[in-house]
Each structure stands twice: as C-alpha cells, then as structure tokens.
Specification:
Helices cover about 50% and strands about 10% of the residues.
Length: about 350
C-alpha cells in the first residue's frame, strides 16, 4: 500500500512539474558555462593580446566616448584574465575595449541577449512582475525535484537495479534506464535541488543561515551606504583612484568592476581573490566619491560565516566551487534531469500502449 501511494505521488508530482524541470535542466546545463560561451560566440569582442600594463580607466572611457559621442560612461568591468577585454558600460550600451591599446573592439546593446534570456528563463521563466511569480514557480519546481528524488530512491531501493536488461521489453529497457540514471546521479541531483531551493527561497532561507551561524551581513548586496558628505565645488575622485583604494582595502583581491556614480552616489568596487571561483568574487568595497574614504568593505576571506554559507551554496549550484571540473559535472547533472523526465515519460507511454 505504501509503495503504491509513493508511486502515485511520484507520478503526480512528475506530471505537474515535468515541463518546468526540463526547462531548468536544459537552461542550467548552458548556464554552467555562460561566460565561456559568451566568449566563444563573440571572439572579436572578447579576446586581446596582452602587451604591457593596462591603460588607465579614464583613457578607456575617453576612447568609448569618442566611439559613442554624447553617451556618458557609468561603469567598467575589468577582465579576470589578461587575454580578455575590458568593458566600458554606458547608458544602453557596452563598449568592449582593448585595455592595452585603447582600441574599441565593438559596441553592443546592454539589453538582454540569447544567453541572458536563458539565464532569466532558468531563474524566473522570463516572467518578472511585482510579486516575482516566475521565480516562485521555479522555486517550487526545485521542491518538486527534491520530492521526486526522495520518492524515486524509495521506489528503487527494494530492487536496487543497476543494469539495463539486454533482452527486456521496450518498457523494461526504459524502466531500467530511468532507474540507472536516477541512482547514478542521485548525489548531484540532490545537490542541485537543495542549493536551488536555497537560492529560490533566499528571502526566507538566508536570514536562517545568519541566525544559525550567529552572524550578520557586513554588506547587503543591492544596498550601499550613503557618502559621508557631498561637498559643493569639489570634484569626485576618478574610477582609477577608487580602484586603488579598493586594492588597499582588500589586499590580494583583484578588482573586477567599478561603477561611476552620480553626484550623490558612491563608488562600489567588486573584487575577487585568487581562490574565489564564483564569477562575481563576492568581495566589495564602498567608497566615498569625494574624499576616497572606505565607507564599507567585505572580503570573501573575512566575510561572516552566514555570508560564506550563502556564497558556497551558490558556487555549488553553479558548479563554480571546484572550477571547470565541477562545472562539467553540474552541467551534466542538469542534463540528467532532462533524461529522467524523458525516460519517465517513455515508461508511462509504453505501459499505456501495452
């Protein structure tokens, strides 16, 4: 009786969440290599030949402004590898610049492209409203995946089948394939599901992470301290000076981006340490744009335990935790979600046909 109930629950959950899980599996397999794919798709914008030190950011800004007259620069993205170009961010545009020569390699719209749409499809089904219902659906799809993993393990356990019968019927072949792929990917699918649910319900789970570790975030991402003063008649420090302040505030970290604030804003410099494998680095320095004083700083090496837990969770989910090897594993695990859905559908169809 219990087995029949679990099987029925397994089928119901799969039939409801199957389409969403296929979308998450396909998009997740691509997102694991999102930066690398962008470079491959746009080689002329991405790659440069290192020849000496990088030029000052102000020089690169002038080059971009000459290419796109009348559009102000509002930020820079500094490459994490010497053979990758810098980005000069402008209103509605991004200029890719050779940081060694000052040549503008090209200008592209800053709006969504193919890869960013895949990213948003994975995060919220391309549906973003005031209640972020797309993200809610994706989050519950992650819960459904956890239920399918748990019920699938329960159903597999009595048989413990780990092979595909060569002389079996079509139904038996699909059944064996479903069992084999499910149990062989059990650990990785569980990691994907747990970390995905953590991310999906971050507004509820993240505070719990800080309570469990007895810590508080030093900086809240998306929020910045206000400058201590906005003196009249004084000019702001340059982006190059802000980057120098950030290097001094977080020794050993490499700045990877800096904004150009409005008159009442602040400089925010993102940085990453050599051991940081997440694309964003998860280190940040907030700087007063007039006197160059550090208003707040948080480095991944000294971040509170709660922040480290949140960062580790995201790195595991994206596969960044161990570099390329773990990205390959998580990309394949995402595809196995699709394989499970396809084989499960095939089991239902062949059994129905018979």
């Amino acid at each position: 009786m219990m087995r029949r109930l679990v099987l029925r629950a397994h089928l119901i959950v799969a039939s409801i969440a199957g389409v969403f899980l296929v979308l998450l599996g396909l998009t997740g397999s691509v997102m694991a290599f999102e930066p690398e794919l962008w470079h491959v798709l746009h080689p002329t914008l991405s790659y440069v030949r290192p020849v000496g030190p990088a030029l000052p950011l102000v020089t690169l800004a002038h080059a971009a402004e000459r290419t796109v007259p009348g559009v102000a620069v509002n930020g820079f993205a500094l490459s994490v590898s010497p053979d990758l170009s810098y980005q000069v961010q402008m209103r509605g545009r991004v200029a890719y610049v050779n940081q060694y020569t000052g040549d503008v390699l090209g200008v592209v719209p800053s709006g969504p492209d193919f890869l960013s749409r895949i990213h948003q499809l994975h995060l919220r089904l391309l549906w973003r409203d005031e209640r972020d219902r797309g993200k809610t659906i994706v989050s519950w799809a992650g819960v459904a995946l956890l239920l399918l993993i748990a019920s699938g393990l329960y159903l597999w356990w009595p048989l413990k089948r780990l092979r595909i019968r060569r002389d079996g019927t079509t139904y038996q072949t699909w059944f064996d394939l479903h069992n084999l792929t499910g149990i062989s990917s059990f650990v990785f699918l569980t990691l994907l599901a747990v970390t995905g649910v953590f991310i999906g319900f971050d507004d509820k789970v993240v505070p719990v992470a800080y309570r469990l570790t007895g810590t508080q975030p030093a900086l809240v991402y998306g929020q910045s301290p206000l400058p201590r003063s906005t003196p009249a008649g004084r000019s702001m420090i340059t982006a190059d000076e802000a980057v120098a302040v950030a290097r001094a505030a977080l020794p050993g970290a490499t700045p990877i981006s800096v904004n150009v604030p409005a008159s009442t804003g602040v400089y925010t410099v993102a940085a990453r340490y050599p051991e940081d494998l997440t694309p964003g680095g998860r280190s940040r320095v907030v700087i007063d744009p007039y006197d160059g004083r550090v208003l707040a700083a948080e480095g991944s090496r000294t971040a509170p335990a709660g922040t480290r837990l949140v960062t580790l969770n995201r790195a595991i989910h994206t596969g960044d935790v161990f570099g390329v090897a773990s990205k390959v594993v998580m990309s394949l695990a995402s595809l196995l979600v699709v394989a499970q859905a396809v084989s499960g559908l095939a089991i239902w169809w062949t059994r129905r046909s018979n």
